[in-house]
Each structure stands twice: as structure tokens, then as C-alpha cells.
Amino acid sequence: MGNDPLTIIAMTGQLAAISMQPIGLIRAPYASLTEVPRHGGLSPKVKARIELLPEFAEGARDIRAGDTILVLFYFDRHHDYDLVTTSRKTGQIMGVFSTRSPRRPNGIGASVVTVTHAAPGELEFTGVDMVDGTPVLDIKPVDTTPVGVT
Fold first, then answer.
1. Tens of pLDDT along 54-99?
2. Cα separations (Å) of 90 from 23, 75, 93, 94?
3. What CATH number has the domain bearing residue 100?
């Protein structure tokens, strides 16, 4: 089977566009992509914050300092992608889905961060690897329970 749009539609039933809106913005000390570490663990003391849009602030009411969260965001400064790229970690040529490259087909980033302060409409965190002004798409709790423990 091919990977043309008609084959994909035939395999899935229907291929529809996906539309999302940001729930907030990242406020980080990094103004450009060249300043951002390849992952937040490389700058454990650097803090940033998520400023939630007012209509989404209530959704974060139960997030507390010390919580580990997954922040899903949009790489808004990249509008093209490479399916094969050089890993910043190893220097090896790799498929983009095996890397943290921002140059991805759908431009979605994901970072696990630790909340240091929570206030209405704002979450401060460490583990920063985003540029200032990055749109936030979603926030999810990270379950730190070991696998196999209920």
C-alpha cells in the first residue's frame, strides 16, 4: 500500500485535519532556540512558568508545588521538518521520531517538568527546555508509581 492521501483515507476511513488552540504560553529565560538545552535536565535550576489563558486557569487548580507534569507544546518557530536528523545528544544520524528535534511533522513538543510554585493561572517549574512565548497545548500529570504497583 502507498502512503498517498487516498490510500491513507481508505485505510482509516477518513482523514480529517486536527485543530488545536493554546491553553497558555511559556515564559522562559531563553529568547532563541540556540539558547535552549536539548532537555530540561541539563538546566535543573532554571525556572520558567506557564501563563494559562483565563478560560483554562481552572483546569490547573489541583496542581501543586512538587508535582511532576507533562507539558505538551507547539514548536511555533519551525514550519518545516526533517524525517532524518542529527541527534544533538549523540551526533548520530537518526529518524526524527527517535530524537527531541523541534523539526517534526506536527511540531509537538513534550517535556516532563517539576512544579515549584502554583498560583491561579500560573505554574512555575524547573526542567525548562522551551523558548519564551512557546504555546502550551496541554498539561498532564505524570504518574511516578513504579510499573506493576497498583
1. 999 999 999 999 999 999 999 888 778 889 988 878 889 989 888 8
2. 34, 22, 9, 10
3. 2.40.30.70
Taking only the tens place, the pLDDT of each residue in 15-35 is: 677 788 999 999 999 888 788
Q: Over the chain, what is the mean pLDDT?
A: 86
Q: How many CB atoms lie within 10 A of CB 36?
A: 21
Residue with cell 532524518: 84
User: Is 59 a domain residue?
Assistant: yes
Give 118's strand partners: 123
At residue 26, the 3 state secondary structure works out as: strand
Position 8 in a domain:
no
Range of the domain at 32: 23-141
* Residues 105, 143, 21, 64, CA torsion sign: negative
Q: How far apart are alpha carbons 123 and 68 in whole angstroms?
A: 11
Torsion of CA 129, 28, 83, 93, to 10 degrees: -40
pTM (2 d.p.): 0.81
CA angle 73, 129, 133 (to 5 degrees): 55
Residue 110: all three cell numbers together: 513534550
